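Hi V.,

Quick status before I head out on leave. The structure for the redesign project is tokenized and pasted below; the design run finished overnight.
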């Protein structure tokens, strides 16, 4: 899983498109890091339920596989900075 986190966003997207990894693999890797570090770092205000995120990831993966999503960052997990 840590090898997924070492990839650049474009490398991860390419591996997803080439079916070497899935969007769900990427989500699981990110959430594992959150589980390991969030208690000490307090980086996030809101962390979405992983089951809901994985359901959405499956839908995104299907759209990538069908060629409906072709953007350079399709399937790459993101975090949004809350500026308060």
């Amino acid at each position: 899983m840590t090898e997924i986190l070492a990839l650049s966003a474009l490398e991860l997207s390419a591996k997803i498109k080439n079916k070497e990894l899935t969007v769900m693999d990427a989500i699981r890797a990110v959430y594992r890091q959150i589980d390991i570090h969030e208690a000490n770092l307090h980086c996030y205000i809101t962390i979405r339920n992983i089951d809901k995120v994985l359901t959405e990831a499956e839908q995104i993966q299907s759209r990538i596989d069908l060629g409906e999503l072709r953007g350079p960052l399709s399937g790459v997990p993101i975090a949004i900075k809350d500026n308060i």
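Above is the designed sequence. The chain has a mean pLDDT of 95.

G. will cover questions while I'm gone.

Best,
W.
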